[in-house]
Amino acid sequence: MGALPQHLVNGLTVGSLYALLAIGLSLTYGVLRIIHIAHGAVYMLGGMISYTLMVRFRLPPLPAIALTLAACAGVGVVFERWAYRPLRTAPIIVTLISSLGLLLMVENLARIAWGPLTQPYPQFVSLRVYALGSVIVTNLQLLVLALGLALMVALQWCLRHTQVGLATLAAVQNPRGARLCGIDIDAIALVIFAVGSGLAGLAGILEGLYLTSVDPSMGQIFGLKAFVAVVVGGLGSIAGTMLAAYLIGLLEALTAAYVSAGLRDVITFALLVLVLMVRPSGLLGRRVDRA
Amino acid sequence: MLDLFFGPYALTLLFLVAINVTLAGSLNLITGYGGQVSIGHVAFYAVGAYTAAILSTAWGWSFWLTLPAAVVVSFAAGVLIGAPSLRVEHDFLAIVTLGLGLVVQGLALNLEVTGGPYGISNVRRIAVLGRTLGPWGHAALAVGLAGLTLFLVHRIQGSRVGTALLAIREDALAAEVTGIETARYKVLAFALGGTFAGAAGALYAHYATFVSSDSFDLAASISMLAMAVVGGLGTRLGPLVGAVLLTLVPELMRFTAEYRMVLYGLMLVVMMRCLPRGLLGRSAIRTGG
Amino acid sequence: MTRNESRAFRLRSTVIGLALAVAAGGIAAAQAPDIKVGVFGPLTGPAAADGNGCLYATQLAGDQANAKGGINGRKVTIVSADDQAKPSEGIAAVQKLVSRDGAIAVVSCSYSGATRSAAPVAQQAKVPMVVAYAVHPDITRAGEYAWRIFSLGPVQGHAIAVMAREDGKAGRAAVLWAKNDYGESISTAATQRFTALGGQVVLSEPFALGDKDFTTLLTKVRAATPDVLLVVGYYNEGALLVQQARRLGLTMPVYASDGLSAPKFVELAGTAAEGVVVSAATDLTSSLFKAFAQEFEARHKYVPDSVPSHGYDAMLVVLEALRRGGASADGVLKGLGEMKEFTGVNGTIVFTPEREIRTDQSFWKIQGGRFTQYKLVPYDRVK
User: Which end of chain B has fewer surrounding CB within 10 Å, N or C?
Assistant: First the structure.
């Protein structure tokens, strides 16, 4: 029992990073039905660009973060205009291959631009360690957790109370119906790519801060796990996506803790397969008609 | 100059191309004709390769015995991995197969029988009438397997099974109503497709004499899918064209050094933008979504 | 033909035409009269840092030999091939080097999977291959053409255990290791030797390459209350692991494998790296190493770690074999056979009949943010 609370804290923190990344994927997937695995590349760019702005150009953290988020949002918009919009009616496999192409391009360009080595990330929030009984929590963990939760609540509010948000929700639930009601899917696509990519960039920054380093390969597996969270959470359910992201984080921590860190990914993915077998439309998903 | 086309390097490339044609061609049966999106095709390749490697090193079996064994085992794996397609569809199936592919790779890395992180070394070379095959022999075998795969997939597509798969791909509900046992045919598509990929795995294991889990990662699955899609899903020769192009172009772009993978990625995006149905694709394909 | 179809047709022709043009370009490039030495390794992809660093070092060694007049008056040219650290790419890369590019010797700048797959190719082509740093035990068993200038995993594992037990005076050890052949071979040997020396291994856990969050594993370490932490892995994971250990309040001494013996480890781990003892094949104080490191840094603007230094030595071994045996593949093999002992930038190695090496195991300690020569475990104690 002793170490369990500690494992839970560790798992939730990583789950928070998955969740931030998964929000963007959940929206793009919900509205456009694309497996946007290049989302991981945007996350990587968030880490690398902010690193460059702070270390090479010596910008203070806040402007550096603002510029990075803008840059990531811009990259997301370019992705959508250049690689996805021409494929709007194509089957999901075609956009998947296109997305893979984007991922390979951006990642390998990043390796050329920054070199393939891992870089130490500037620690602009000085570390504090709190001991609550036997549980050790750092202020960075609390920051990641709090920011994750706050952004999720804010996003849910925006979805329910703004024009764009409601249109997005409508498009997630029924893309064809939304179009019939005069909702401009292309405009929504740009907004969700910008917002989702900005959040991915933020997740990249937070990872740099929490795990103290960034590198051009950091996006691959993270992007994949975030996407799994989207599907397991349930199509069109942003709350389900969040829940799944935290569950994956917890599951990973608990398998590493009580089974074996070597088997962590095997067990995580095997359980995900099982979840989908039992609930074929995801944890909080409803059966949605094919568009 | 002749050496360029018949030298050992050209024959090595021919071997690798033919293996990829087999993999893309067998995936075409599952995803192209069957309409079941699979991002875990590497699992069958791995199952075939490890079956051959284990039987060859533990019991000294030759390729001519491990090949049928690999075929049987990967057929069974196809039934197992195809079973989820009865419960989940489309994008969910894509993620389930992706997960299963990662599980198979993870097991290969962690199990004792697969050699754990060391993999399996010293798989016996292929011999015909007591003589070990050279580069020509290996290339000929691989090309033969690729040809057989394309031919049999074509025959399957033209048969009752193919018609049933087509019906399921276009409208599973309507197919069910007209009396097609969709469950049986879906699983059959996975099992048959898996069988060819397993045979390719066995051939690769004996050719390389070494298998390890890093050959069977997600990137390999996605690249098989890319070959099938770039060539044209649901076309007879699409997998051939796609596999040849996507194996040879990176190989011939070696001179671009570090830009090699950037250009490869760019090529994928541009190809999908310009030719979403693939190089040979004519009729619209529907694979869910 | 509709407008769309004809557009698709044009595009299709353009794509195929472009592919052919690229093919022709690739074929046209090649051929030159010098002595060709092939180098393969991961030049793209996640492992590109190691592949390129090692390649640069072999090029440096080649250029230095050429500046001194080459090998018996002939210049040496390096031809390289990327394998992305993938086994099947390793086969194609080495086949290209030996049969298309005319390499008469090959240096492996790659990891185990690709090198193990490539070894039979070199063997069949009868071209000697010198392995810089891949540790898979079966590589040299491919045959008499496969040579290695890097200690096998168990040697290092034994040395780390001896240091932990004697230098660290530890009774209880926790071992965290990277889940690949490198991690498994070193950690298994370290565990055996530590136990044989009367210690107790209280926890042994693998982690995946690319892992960044070790807090869960370290929470387990904390519960197991070891006196010493043994880390078997590479600098990326190693740096984060040590840093997170210190954050969680784990203050025990750390002994690590040579994958952490890179300047990048100190850069990433920061102050947490202080006091860590790492295994390293290289004698930092030797003038040979200093000269190499200086030249390498002048060219490539970064301090070389043990991957480039082993690439450099592998190339020096090939050059020496060329000098002794003559400019042919058979000559290189003959030269390698004659070379019982070799002194390179990593120290002196002695080749065994199995084409492996015997060498003492150095240990470095990180003090004041720099690696300093610390202790030596002689080969007799760790074989």
Answer: N
The CA distance from C6 to the nearest CA of chain B, in Å, is 12
pLDDT for the residue numbered C13: 59
**A92, A111, A277 ranked by CB distance to B289: nearest:** A92
Q: What is the pLDDT of residues B111-132, one digit of tens each?
A: 999 999 999 999 999 999 888 8
A116 Cβ contact partners less than 8 Å away, ≥ 6 residues apart? A215, A216, A217, C46, C47, C48, C49, C52
Interface-testing mutation among A18, A119, A130, A136, with chain C (most C C-beta atoms within 10 A):
A136
Q: Is it the case that residue C351 has pLDDT exceeding 90?
A: yes
Sign of the Cα torsion A202, A206, A208, A209 reads: positive
Cβ within 8 Å, pair A120-C268: yes
- Residues of chain B with Cβ-Cβ distance to A272 below 8 Å are 95, 99
> In the B/C pair of chains, how many CB contacts fall below 8 A?
113
Cβ-Cβ contacts under 8 Å between A and C: the total is 85
Whether the predicted pLDDT of B149 surpasses 90: yes
Q: Could you report the per-residue pLDDT of B154-195, keeping only the tens digit for each? A: 999 889 888 888 888 888 888 888 888 888 898 999 999 999
Q: What is the mean pLDDT of residues C283-300?
A: 91
pLDDT tens by residue, C199-229: 999 999 999 888 888 988 999 999 999 999 9
pLDDT 10s digits, B228-278: 999 999 899 999 999 999 999 888 887 887 788 899 899 999 989 888 888
Instruction: Compare CB distances from B210 to C12, C96, C117 and report the shortest one's residue.
Output: C117
Residues of chain A contacting residue C44, judged by C-beta atoms under 8 Å apart: 108, 111
- Give A228's contacts in chain B (Cβ within 8 Å): 95, 99
